Amino acid sequence: MSEAREQTGLSRRKRAVAAVAGGAVVLAGAALWTSAFVKSPAQAAADAGPPARDVLTAPVERRVLTDTVVTRGTVSASQTADLSPVGAAVDGSTAPVVTKVMVRSGQTFPAGRVLVEVSGRPVFALPGALPVYRDLKPGSHGDDVRQLQKALASVGHSTGSDPSGTYGPGTKQAVAGLYAAIGYEPVPASGVAEGTDGDPVDAARDGVKQARRQLDGLLRAEPGKKQDADAIRYAREDLAEARTRLGQAEAKSGPMVPASEVVFLSGFPARVDSMTAKVGREVGEKLATVSAGRLVVKGSLGAQEKDLIRPGQKVEVLSEAYGDKVTATVASVADVLTAPESGDEGAATDGQGYAVVVKPEAPLPARFAGQDVRLTIEAATSGKKVLVVPVSALSAGADSRTSVTVLTASGERRRVEVRAGTSGDGFTEVVPAEGARLAAGDKVIVGVTR
Question: Which regions form coiled coils (predicted)?
């Protein structure tokens, strides 16, 4: 009986060992299956390799091709001037002060109009292109005097028979008439009013009187006394010199136009762009900014753009503020680098660029003044419809010949030799070589994607 129990225990142990061995076999098989059919994401990506490549195409087009340059500009008049009437203070005051303001920002005004008053003295505008740079006084000569004479005549004050460019008696009379018309007394050139103490003309006249009396006394010799011929000769010379000094004093006397009281503008009616003067304030660097002439657009170009732009090219001026588009032309392009004016945002670097002036074909509305606008300049054009392809479609082979690759409907690739022409806005004009075939609608390869 004990022997039977031993055989039963042995059988159980054999079955347990067999079960363990069978489990090991199953686990080993599972591991083998897993290694063969289950992969990590990294391994799967590595085994997959790159995806198949595909080509990008673009159609060949037939259209007018233009090359454009886009920059910014500021609308302003052809001439802008600052009112900076820096002059001597009047008697009893320590510094010039604004006493009246006659115009406001945005207002237009005619020639001869007083704009502001400084310490009781007027600041007015006259027509002319040459900026004032000195006081215009009797006896003066030059182009600025000629400009003053023309300006006086334009507002109704003739300069008479004075030679052009010479401030003579007729010009004095015209200046006196202008000041009377605007309601002010003119400033005397000598700084002293005629007939008052210190007047150089009065002093010269006294000199003539004294010299004349001296000569008359010598000529009226006492009876029986011989006249002194030398003394008479010297007296005559003294009288002549006194008369010369009187003539010089009279030529240099009379009303003058101080540089602090006039601004010359190229056209009227002119505009007040900004008025900063306030009654009671001392005169600063600038009282107002005025402008004249037709509104133009001033911008700035970078060196790479400057070579593409020349006078006469078409320009589209866009006012984002009003949504208006205006056609214009390039009026001028500077040859030297300059710092851009306030508001200009060209493609220049380091704050410098080549100034460009754009002239609208029709006068701009007054509301455009001072606006920042976008300029789209047509730098080049094909002039007519031509075949064009994207620039990326062009390639150069080992033979240095330019070509494009056409992808046919069947998937075949056909190399077409071309000659490149005008480029603009990412496209290039192409002309097929002799015997080559290229037409609008053909698909050309511009790149490859995965």
Answer: 201-252
